[in-house]
Amino acid sequence: MSRIASAFARLQAGRRVALIPFITAGDPAVEATVPLMHTLVKAGADILELGVPFSDPQADGPVIQRASERALKLKVSLRKVLEMVTEFRQTDRNTPVVLMGYANPIEAMGRQNFAALAQRAGVDGVLVVDIPPEESEDWVRTVRANDLDPIFLLAPTSTDERVGQVARLASGFVYYVSLKGVTGAAHLDQSEVATRLPQLQASIPLPVGVGFGIRDADSAKAVAAVADAVVVGSRIIQEIEGSTPETLHGRVFELVSGLRMAIDSVQKS
After folding, report:
1. Catalytic residue selected from 27, 31, 46, 49
2. Is the torsion defined by CA of 47, 86, 250, 61 positive or negative?
3. Which residue segments constitute the domains of the chain, with CATH numbers given?
4. N or C: which terminus of the chain carries fewer CB neighbours within 10 A?
5. Contact 3, 124 (CB under 8 A)
6. Maximal CA-CA distance, the chain
7. Residue 160 appears among annotated catalytic residues
8. 28: Cβ–Cβ under 8 A, 6 or more apart, which residues?
9. What's the pLDDT at 183?
10. Catalytic residue among 31, 46, 56, 60
11. Section 205-234 average pLDDT
12. Helix 248-264 and helix 33-43: axis angle, to 10°?
């Protein structure tokens, strides 16, 4: 059983919802990333989502775009991100790590080479925003051959056909984008999520996590009532952006541990 599957099995046995925080690798400094990953785990993260900096993102809002720009100025490459995961695995062999990014850096490295290096580094899953399920048969075979979970996005506009494709191809979990827009948007439609999630969960034999627009304890709690995982990114990046090196870990820990408490206050059936 993969680390991701094991994490969800453990959580479901305890009737708990996963917390999946997102940070951009290399932001605010190259040497800060691995310690930040450990801080997120201490604060209650179940799975870590590590963004691979990219110069032309499609789904990322201005907050995460700025984080990518800062990391790219520090020359943070895909290879460097894999080195960070390798370092993280020296002291944490249990927390799943998912890379989220875009196809261009992977294609430049070569899909087979990337998948082999990612497995060796200790990566557990990969979400590539611009490899849609309709074009992913070869991609899925490549990553699965290297024991990596291919993770896909679904949105409020996803057709039944796409939901079926994702149900067939994905493993680990499925990431539901809770709104029409980019990361960091503030108009989370909780009623739409509450309506849509049971439909997806009935069609997909995997946990379904919800992200985009979750900014505080109240929105995290509302999503946890229906989802299998809560994904929070832009709000954490904002905390990083407003921190000094001295306050960074304390502020991130306080935010994420507060989200953890809110999520754990939900009693799952």
Report:
1. 49
2. negative
3. 3-264 (3.20.20.70)
4. C
5. yes
6. 49
7. no
8. 70, 240, 241, 243, 245, 248
9. 45
10. 60
11. 95
12. 30
